[in-house]
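REQUEST FORM: STRUCTURE PREDICTION
Request ID: SP-0412
Submitted by: Lab K.M.
Chain count: 1
Length (residues): 682
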Amino acid sequence: MNSKFLTPYDPKETEKRIYKLWDESGFFNPDNLPGKRKKKFTIVMPPPNANGSLHSGHVLFITLEDIITRFKRMSGFKTLWLPGADHAGFETQVVFEKKLEKEGSSRFGMDPNELYQKILAFTLENKKNMEAQVRSLGASCDWSREKFTLDPDIVLKTQETFKKMFDEKLIYRGERTVNWCPKHQTSLSEVETESTEETSPFYYFQYGPFEIGTVRPETKFGDKYVVMHPKDGRYQKYKHGDKLELEWINGPIQATVIKDEAVDMEFGSGVMTITPWHSQVDLEIANRHNLDVEQIIDWRGKLLPIAGEFSGINIKEARAKIVEKLESKGLLTRTDSDYKNVIKRCYKCNSVIEPQIKKQWFVKMKPLAKLALDAVENKEIKFIPSNYEKIFRYWMENAMDWNISRQIIWGIPIPAWFRNDEVAVSIDKPNGEGWVKDPDTFDTWFSSGQWPLFMTGYPNDNDYKSFYPTDVMETGHDLIFKWVPRMVIFGLYLSGKVPFHTVYLHGLVNDAQGKKMSKSKGNVIDPLVLTEKYGTDALRMTLIVGNTPGTDLSLREEKIKGYKNFANKIWNIARFVLSQEKSGKPDKKLVSEFDKIAKDVTADMESYRFYIAAEKIYAYVWHRFADEIIEESKKLPISSATLYYILENSLKLLHPFMPFITEEIWQELNKENLLLVETWPQ
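STATUS: Completed
RESULT:
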């Protein structure tokens, strides 16, 4: 027996050495796996954003996917786990902007090329560090196939998809109301906003002979149309197109009566004014009647000259002043101070979203959503937990056209060119003079939505022919809106096949009190500090045992300490067994008992019940094997062959969960082979 077993288990000394052993073996690459492997298994890593260090959520998905990969590899599959990293467009630019702010600088006014190069250097450095962290967690992915979402081939394929969709009229450019973040100066899609119900004052004003209501008096400078339902009997004397002279914020104005069925007769007075530039509903009314559309609020969230004396004032500051002036003119009739209002905010900076009209590129979602809905209806995709299928269906059934234009430097350029009123979609600059490149970049989900295709080398690579569709997409339940549907629609649209057959959704990792981790709250737990203190295996077990799919997890250090003790228990078991020379025949009753456990664990693994499988093997090893069988062997004649049998096969069952310590012990038991590629107990 190696003398190291006479001292306590040392994860620091072990983990780097063992990972190097795996890496150099070449077995992360399915092409190098031993034996004949007819069955294939593929899983694609959700690419971590290359803009910072890993957090606990990253550790959870890496652990889950590594468990799946190791289990399938040991079960005889030609197993491929594809790693990568995401440039993360808007999110990375936000992180970099915060860095610039700390340095007393800003992206505004910087040369675009200089800014891009600075973000690129920042991202590549983070990507390098992040990959080292992923390795330290035991990820047995094929690094020879690693991809980055800004790799030239991915950039080209993304742009080719855009052109294909444009040519097939699934993408269009149009002026529509978009979600505008005044802080970051870019439009956002619906899934990049967060809606919360907040209490806001609801003001009622006298608008000529009518009472109108609003939570946004700052938009009322543009109100020159008063709209009512054509069937509202209260206002039959007013005809469509009638002109009314009335007193308003900055003096007398002329308002035009508009009759439209979009008005809710039951809400308030049944009369409303419209601000088409800052409301999609209002814009639709304006378009139906060919009305003027005028911008009231600028891109920075400040009032434009149309606001007169309030010009240049931030809308938050201006609101109270506008109400005060209307009250002084006797036009404020009443105020509902407890009005419940849904507020949209930027999901990164919490700024209130300002609806703005902007010419952008949009994806027509309805025909694409139908592809996804049909695939789910035909049982081509399974969701774990199953209740997320309903959520997926709901999102697809209600999907709105997707704004894919972003007014940021960092990302994949949109391959479009403008010359006066002409628009050309082309990867290369069109022939002729005067063409100007579209300055916008893609919403990052437009490229990452094609991730399973990119990772397998769509459309001509051998990996695409061999490993697509992939088997499992494992990701956080918070991405059921942002990412999963987009992968499904792109997979079906481009390849005619679903990109994966199973969607496994894990929960979020919260602090010990169940609160979401946040740097501002000061409750972020650095997982790498925990692995340094307790070992990677202990953290992996902590994240898995008791963690059901789709359920948020509270990370407690006491639990991690408990699984460090379990690692020490395994080490002590190995020390005892290895101290004996292997002899005799395995006890049939004890072997049969273990084989029953192995069968149960296997069934749980195959059904993605990893939390149950881990708990079963933990309970057996600690309480049955260590506390009972080994203790009994000190008094009763139990053959050492029995102990070796249980130890060797327990290591196999534990390996996907605790790969480092199990491999370390295995190397003492069998120096010729890696546990990494041993056969799973049958």
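NOTES: The chain has three domains: 1-32+556-682, 48-170+372-506, 187-354.
Reviewed by: T.R.
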